[in-house]
Specification:
This protein has helices at about 1-25, 30-40, 50-70, 75-80, 80-105, 110-120, 130-135, 140-170, 175-205, 210-230, 235-250, 255-280, 285-290, 295-350, 350-370, 380-395, 400-410, 415-420, 430-460, 470-485, 495-515, 520-540. It folds into three domains: about 1-325 and about 395-465, Up-down Bundle (Na+/H+ antiporter like fold), CATH 1.20.1530.20; about 335-395, no CATH class; about 470-540, no CATH class. Helices cover about 80% and strands about 0% of the residues. It is built from 22 helices and no strands. By secondary structure, the protein is mainly alpha-helical.
Length: about 550
């Protein structure tokens, strides 16, 4: 009965925090962490200790899966280089820098255990980045932040395992690299297989409720086998989510996707809220572990403050050359633009395209006979050229400035993952209770300091902002494109033809999405309108059928 009462109260607190966040502009995670800390420190509140595996294996996979389903895959692809650097290279550099600091600042700790704590602190929190969504940062910065937070937990956990293992045995760089590559490659393969099987099975399920229940199992169907094979369950869940999000509009009915969306929003709200609430409640139990160590709390707070400063400095030192690299990338694409435009114009001209197709077919015929390779596909090549042109427009339309870089640095918050990962440190870890308290203090201060001031930092820096007028103009262009879509009426009732027309328009929008011709936000709003129209038509029934 007590568990039921506590659970009901927690749900009310989560709902109330979201209401306050919407009304007063205070990020809900901050409210929940503060409430958890206050309640946890009350004298009659028992210590709350949560098995960290519940967070790492039970809560993170569905949250990361849900976030990756809703993330625009085209933006993820375009920013993959930056995302890979932030989620792997930056995590490694931060772990090493913090490892050196902790080995120097904590007597008897050693470099390997210092790196282990550094790996715990280094990843940004996927749930915490939701704070950045509400302050209006540019889609490019948001894509980097979301992509980084989806992938860096896996690299941090691999570094953590490697550091713990090297504390007991000799460190092998080759073994560490091999372990990381294995963890990622196997996870991507498993996630891709599960993501495709998920769509195949759910496309054959007519009941929207059953379809949604099946979707709840997908992140675990990907993460559990990956973990059993020694790979990253989180990367597997993210991969399954990206594949599902990209292919679902072509595979699943609008009703199924609407049901998914609404139910997953509820799951996200409850899990995110529970994570931050529990994070605050755990403070009392963490403090009780260091109660016998004189000056431990003060030491932990000083170490945490220094660790946050180091993570910000390292992040700034990494983001600065990242911005220069992105600027050079834009310059290279600008030089490519005239050539790509000429190629695209040639392919759009029916006469020139036909001539080119005949010449290529004639030239390829002999090569295919000699080598057995597939003939050159001109249509596929044309699609690739159009996608590259769209990527050029994307980079030139939204260049990253130092102001965007400042937001990218400050928005890299730590959160509940840091607390959970710290509690996985082995019992024989030197100064384990102090290290766990340091990790908790870093996560809490990072959330309250960076999360609480992010809106102010955005107002101060004035980074590239979302342009509502440009969004409306793009949406109008998409709608104008759809105005010319038609379907034959042969053998179809008026209602069936209307539904077929909506489906044809959806295919056009999805083709534009895959080519990257328009912004993901404009296309998402049009897709939502088409889905609503189809659902309405289907609910009306067909009197002529």
């Amino acid at each position: 009965m007590e568990i039921l009462v506590v659970g009901a109260l927690a749900l009310l607190v989560i709902a109330g925090s979201r209401t306050l966040a919407g009304r007063y502009g205070i990020p809900a995670p901050l409210v929940l962490v503060v409430v958890g800390i206050v309640v946890g420190l009350l004298p009659f509140t028992p210590d709350v200790e949560i098995d960290p595996e519940w967070i790492l294996a039970g809560v993170l996979p569905p949250l990361l899966y849900s976030a990756s389903v809703s993330m625009p895959a085209t933006n993820f692809r375009r920013e993959f280089g930056a995302i890979g650097g932030l989620s792997i290279v930056l995590v490694l550099l931060t772990s090493l820098a913090l490892g050196l600091f902790f080995a120097w600042a904590i007597p008897g700790l050693g470099f390997a255990w210092g790196v282990a704590l550094g790996a715990v602190i280094s990843p940004t929190d996927a749930v915490a980045t939701t704070i950045a969504k509400r302050v209006g940062v540019s889609p490019r910065v948001m894509a980097m932040l979301e992509g980084e937070s989806l992938l860096n937990d896996a690299s941090a956990l691999v570094i953590l395992r490697t550091a713990v293992a090297s504390a007991a045995a000799a460190f092998s760089f080759g073994h560490a690299v091999g372990q990381f590559a294995f963890a990622v490659v196997v996870a991507v393969v498993i996630g891709a297989v599960v993501g495709r099987l998920n769509l195949i099975v759910r496309a054959r399920t007519s009941d929207a409720t059953v379809n949604t229940v099946l979707s709840f199992a997908v992140p675990f169907a990907a993460s559990i086998p990956a973990e059993l094979l020694g790979a990253s369950g989180l990367v597997a869940a993210v991969t399954a989510g990206i594949i599902t999000g990209r292919a679902a509009p072509r595979t699943l009915s609008p009703r199924h996707r609407l049901s998914d969306s609404e139910n997953w929003r509820t799951i996200e709200l409850v899990l995110e809220g529970a994570v931050f609430l529990l994070m605050g409640l755990e403070l009392s139990a963490i403090l009780s572990e260091v109660r016998g160590e004189a000056g431990a709390v003060g030491t932990a707070l000083l170490l945490a403050a220094a660790a946050i400063a180091i993570t910000l400095v390292v992040r700034l030192a990494y983001v600065a050359p990242l911005l220069r690299g992105q600027s050079r990338r834009a310059e290279r694409t600008l030089r490519m633009q005239p050539r790509l435009t000429r190629m695209n114009d040639a392919l759009q001209d029916p006469a020139r395209a036909r001539e080119l197709r005949e010449r290529l077919a004639l030239a390829a015929r002999g090569r295919v006979r000699r080598s057995g390779r597939r003939a050159f596909d001109l249509d596929q090549f044309g699609s690739r050229v159009r996608r590259m042109l769209a990527d050029v427009d994307y980079l030139l339309k939204a260049p990253l400035t130092w102001r965007d870089g400042g937001v990218l640095v400050w928005a890299g918050m730590r959160g509940a993952v840091t607390v959970a990962a710290a509690q996985t440190l082995p019992e024989h870890t030197p100064h384990r209770s102090l290290l766990v308290l340091v990790a908790f203090a870093v996560a809490t201060f990072s959330l309250l300091l960076q999360g609480g001031t992010l809106a102010w930092v955005v107002r101060l820096l004035k980074p590239t902002a979302v342009d509502p007028e440009a969004e409306r103009a793009e949406r109008a262009e998409v709608l104008a494109l759809l105005a010319g879509v038609d379907v034959p009426a042969d053998g179809l009732s008026p209602k069936q033809r209307e539904i077929a027309l909506v489906r044809a328009k959806r295919d056009v929008v999805l083709d534009a999405r895959d080519a990257g011709t328009y912004d993901a936000e404009a296309l998402a709003s049009v897709l939502a309108a088409l889905d609503a129209e189809q659902i309405s038509l289907e609910l009306q029934g067909d009197p002529d059928a």
